[in-house]
Design goal:
The structure holds two protein chains of two kinds. Chain A is built from seven helices and nine strands; from the N terminus they run E-H-H-E-E-H-E-E-H-E-E-H-H-E-H-E. By secondary structure, chain A is of the alpha+beta class. In chain A, the strands form four sheets. In chain A, strands 8-1-9 form a three-stranded mixed beta sheet. In chain A, strand 4 and strand 5 (about 95) form a beta hairpin. Chain B is mainly α. Chain B is built from 17 helices and no strands. The relative contact order of chain B is 0.18. Classes of the chains: A alpha+beta, B mainly alpha. The interface of A and B includes residues 67, 100, 108, 118 and 119 of A.
C-alpha cells in the first residue's frame, strides 16, 4: 500500500530547545546565513520554532510552535509555479525540483506558512562546516527555492532497504532529522495510511488541529495544542 | 488657421530630418540610465538577487511593482486609440500614434522586467512551450504562464496595431528622402503605392485590429491582477482585482500619454497639431478614470474593513494607519485629491493643468502597485513571520533604468517615425483634395469615408 507521510507536533511537549532546527541544518545542507543576512530576514530554516508571548507580566508565558512545510494536500504553492518545479508526489509530499526552478518566488508568496526559502546568493559554509555536508542531499545554488522535504532522502533509503529485504516498513523505523533529534518527543513522524502508527493515533485524537486549517490547504502536519 | 497637406507633411517629417543638440543630450542621458540598469542586471546575474532588498517573506517588491506599473502604462495607447478609432472620435488623429507607441514600448519594458526579476534569468525559456526531450511543458495552471501568453499576445497585437498605420507615412518618407534612408523606408513601407485597393485593405486591417485589441488589452491587465488574486495572501485574494487593475491601468496610461504628448509638443514644436483641445478631451477621460479608481479603492477598502477578517485587517491597518500610511495617503492625494479639481474645473483643464494632474497620477499609481504588493507580503498570516522590506540601490537603479529605457525608445521613435500620423491628419483636413499632392503617393480614395472628418483645430 502506498504511504502517506505525515507529522504530528505536540505543543504540550515542545520546550523550544531548537535542536530540530540545528539537526535540520546539518542533515539538509542548509547554509548559515550570517549575522548580517539573518538580520535582513534571509536566514533559511526549513523548520523554525516560533515563540509567542501570552499574557502580561507577571503572568506572561512563552509559547513555542515549531513550523515546517505542512506538505499540504491542496498546496497553494503548487499550481502557481509556471514551470512545474514544485509538484505533489504520490506519497503526499510537496516536492521541489531544484534544477527545474527558475526562481519566480511565486510559490513563496503563495505559501501562507512562509516555509519556502530563496537562495539569494550561492551558499557558503564557514570552515570546518564545509566538511560535514550530507552527500545524500543536493546543495542548492543561487536563485532557486528550497523547502522542508520531510527528509525525503531518509524516506527513500528506508524504502529501498525494506524493498531489498522484501518486507514492509515498520512504524518508527526511520525519522526525519528534526523528529530524531527532538528529545521531549514533541515531533512524531509516520505513515497516515497505517492505522496503527503512532502518527495516525495522534492525528486522529480529539486534540488534533491544523495550522491555518481554515484556508483549506489540507496540511499533513497536525498540531496538538497545549492543554493549559 | 489652416494648413495645406504639403505643410502638414513638412512639419511632421521635420523631426526625422533635423535634430537639435538638445535631442542628442537627452538621448545620451537616457542611454546612461539604460547602461546603469544593464550593469546592475549583469552584476545581479553574477552574484544573485541578494543585492536587492528582498527578504523572507517579501519575495516581490520593486520588481513586480515596476512590472505592473509598466504593463499599466501600456494601456495608454492601444486601448484608448482603438476605442477612439471605433468611436470615430475625430480629435483622435494627432494622438493615436503617440499613444500606440507608448503601449509597445511599455509592454516591451514590462516583458523584460519579469525575466530580470527571476532567480535564474538564463532559464527563463522554461516558460516557453517548446518541444523538449524531457517532455515538460509550462504549467498552464499558473497565472505566470497565463501572463507569458497574455503579454506576448498583447505585444504582438499592439505592435501590429502601431505598424499598420505607419505604412503610408513610411512611403511618404521614402518619397521625400534620398540614399540609404530611401532604401530602408522603401523596404519598411512594403511597396505602398496608395492605390484604392491598398487603402481599402489598410482600413479593413486597422478596423479589425481595433476591435481585436480591446479584449486583449482588458485581458492582459486582468491576468496581471490574477498574479495576486489567485493566491491565498491577505488582501490579494480578491475578486475585485481584475477590473480594479484594468481601471488603474487605463488611468495611469492616459496620464502617461498626456505627459508624453506635452513633451513631444514642446520639444518637436508640434504646438499646431497637439492643441489644447486634445489635452482637454484626454483630461475629461482622465477625470472619469480618477473617479472610477476612487470608487474601486473605496469599495475594496470598505468591504475589507466591514468583513473585519484578522489577517486582512493586519494589512489594512498597516496601510491606513501604520507603517505605510504616509504612502497610502500620498497615493490618495496624488490620484484623487489633486487631479479631480484640476480636471473638473474647465479653467484649470489646460495643458499645464492636465500635465500636473498626470504627473501626480503617474506617481500615485506607482505607489498604488507598491501598496498592493508589499504590505500584504509583510503581513502574511503568522505574526512570527511578519517581515520588513526596504529597497536597495540596485532596485532603485533598475527602476530608474526602466524610465530611461522608455525615454530612449521614445526619442529614437521620434527620430525614425513621424510621431503624428501624417496621412490621417491629411485625411482629416476639411475639404482636402481627394488626391493630395502629385509629388507624394499618399492618396485618400473618394468614398472611403476617412476624408470627411475635420481636424479639430479647423472647426
Amino acid at each position: 500500500m502506498a504511504h502517506k507521510w505525515a507529522m504530528v507536533v505536540d505543543l504540550d511537549r515542545c520546550t523550544g530547545c531548537e535542536a530540530c532546527v540545528v539537526a535540520c541544518h546539518a542533515e539538509n545542507n542548509i547554509p548559515t546565513a550570517g549575522d548580517d543576512q539573518a538580520a535582513r530576514g534571509r536566514a533559511n530554516h526549513w523548520i523554525r520554532v516560533e515563540s509567542y508571548w501570552e499574557g502580561e507580566y507577571p503572568d506572561a508565558r512563552l509559547r513555542f510552535q515549531p513550523v515546517m512545510c505542512q506538505q499540504c494536500d491542496d498546496a497553494p504553492c503548487e499550481p502557481v509555479c509556471p514551470v512545474f518545479a514544485t509538484y505533489h508526489t504520490a506519497e503526499g509530499l510537496n516536492a521541489q525540483v531544484y534544477n527545474r526552478c527558475v526562481g519566480t518566488r511565486f510559490c513563496a508568496n503563495a505559501c501562507p506558512y512562509t516555509v519556502r526559502f530563496f537562495n539569494f546568493y550561492n551558499p557558503v559554509w564557514d570552515k570546518p562546516l564545509n566538511l560535514q555536508l550530507n552527500p545524500d542531499v543536493s546543495v542548492r545554488s543561487v536563485g532557486i527555492m528550497e523547502k522542508c522535504t520531510f527528509c525525503v532522502q531518509r524516506i527513500r533509503a528506508a524504502e529501498v532497504q525494506a524493498e531489498g529485504e522484501k518486507r514492509d516498513l515498520k512504524d518508527g523505523e526511520f525519522n526525519p532529522a528534526c523528529v530524531q533529534s527532538c528529545s521531549p518527543k514533541a515531533l512524531v513522524f509516520g505513515d497516515l495510511n497505517d492505522p496503527n502508527s503512532e502518527v495516525s493515533r495522534l492525528a486522529n485524537s480529539n486534540r488534533s488541529t491544523k495550522l491555518l486549517g481554515e484556508l483549506g490547504t489540507l496540511p499533513n502536519v497536525t498540531y496538538l495544542p497545549r492543554g493549559v | 488657421m489652416k494648413k495645406t497637406p504639403e505643410q502638414i507633411q513638412q512639419d511632421l517629417l521635420r523631426p526625422m530630418f533635423h535634430s537639435s543638440a538638445r535631442y542628442w543630450v537627452a538621448v545620451a542621458l537616457a542611454s546612461c540610465l539604460v547602461l546603469a540598469g544593464a550593469c546592475t542586471f549583469l552584476y545581479q546575474v553574477y552574484t544573485g538577487i541578494g543585492i536587492w532588498g528582498l527578504d523572507s517573506p517579501v519575495f516581490w517588491a520593486f520588481d513586480i511593482t515596476n512590472f505592473v506599473f509598466w504593463i499599466g502604462i501600456s494601456h495608454a495607447g492601444t486601448l484608448i486609440s482603438a476605442i477612439l478609432r471605433l468611436a470615430n472620435a475625430t480629435w483622435r488623429r494627432p494622438v493615436t500614434r503617440c499613444a500606440e507607441a507608448i503601449t509597445v514600448f511599455a509592454v516591451s519594458i514590462g516583458a523584460i522586467i519579469p525575466v530580470c526579476h527571476i532567480g535564474r534569468p538564463w532559464l527563463a525559456y522554461y516558460l516557453i512551450p517548446y518541444p523538449s526531450e524531457r517532455h515538460i511543458w509550462p504549467n498552464f495552471r499558473s497565472p505566470l504562464a497565463w501572463d507569458f501568453f497574455a503579454i506576448i499576445t498583447y505585444l504582438t497585437g499592439s505592435t501590429t496595431f502601431l505598424l499598420l498605420p505607419m505604412i503610408p507615412d513610411w512611403a511618404a518618407v521614402r518619397d521625400t528622402s534620398t540614399g540609404l534612408r530611401k532604401r530602408i523606408y522603401g523596404i519598411l513601407c512594403l511597396g505602398w503605392r496608395g492605390t484604392p485597393r491598398q487603402w481599402h485593405r489598410l482600413e479593413t486591417a486597422m478596423h479589425v485590429m481595433a476591435i481585436v485589441i480591446v479584449p486583449v488589452a482588458v485581458s492582459v491587465h486582468t491576468i496581471v491582477s490574477w498574479d495576486f488574486a489567485m493566491t491565498p495572501v491577505p488582501m490579494w485574494r480578491s475578486t475585485i482585482f481584475g477590473p480594479y487593475f484594468v481601471v488603474g491601468a487605463i488611468f495611469s496610461g492616459i496620464a502617461a500619454l498626456i505627459l508624453a504628448m506635452a513633451l513631444l509638443r514642446k520639444f518637436l514644436h508640434l504646438e499646431e497639431y497637439l492643441q489644447p483641445i486634445h489635452f482637454q478631451n484626454l483630461g475629461k477621460l482622465l477625470l472619469t478614470m480618477s473617479a472610477l479608481w476612487f470608487y474601486f479603492t473605496f469599495a475594496e477598502r470598505l468591504t475589507t474593513w466591514y468583513a473585519n477578517e484578522p489577517s486582512e485587517m493586519a494589512v489594512f491597518w498597516t496601510t491606513i494607519r501604520q507603517n505605510f500610511a504616509p504612502l497610502f495617503w500620498t497615493m490618495v492625494v496624488c490620484n484623487f485629491i489633486i487631479p479631480v479639481p484640476i480636471l473638473a474645473i474647465r479653467k484649470l483643464r489646460t495643458i499645464t493643468g492636465t500635465c500636473i494632474a498626470s504627473a501626480t497620477i503617474v506617481v500615485g499609481m506607482w505607489i498604488e502597485r507598491f501598496l498592493i504588493i508589499v504590505p500584504a507580503l509583510e503581513h502574511k498570516y503568522l505574526p512570527y513571520t511578519y517581515g520588513h522590506y526596504r529597497p536597495t540601490w540596485a532596485e532603485i537603479t533598475l527602476m530608474a533604468s526602466s524610465f530611461g529605457f522608455m525615454v530612449l525608445l521614445y526619442l529614437l521613435f521620434a527620430k525614425f517615425v513621424p510621431v503624428i500620423s501624417v496621412w490621417e491628419l491629411k485625411a482629416g483636413l476639411h475639404g482636402a483634395p481627394a488626391t493630395p499632392h502629385a509629388s507624394t503617393v499618399i492618396s485618400v480614395p473618394v468614398g472611403s469615408g476617412i476624408e470627411d472628418n475635420p481636424l479639430p483645430g479647423d472647426v
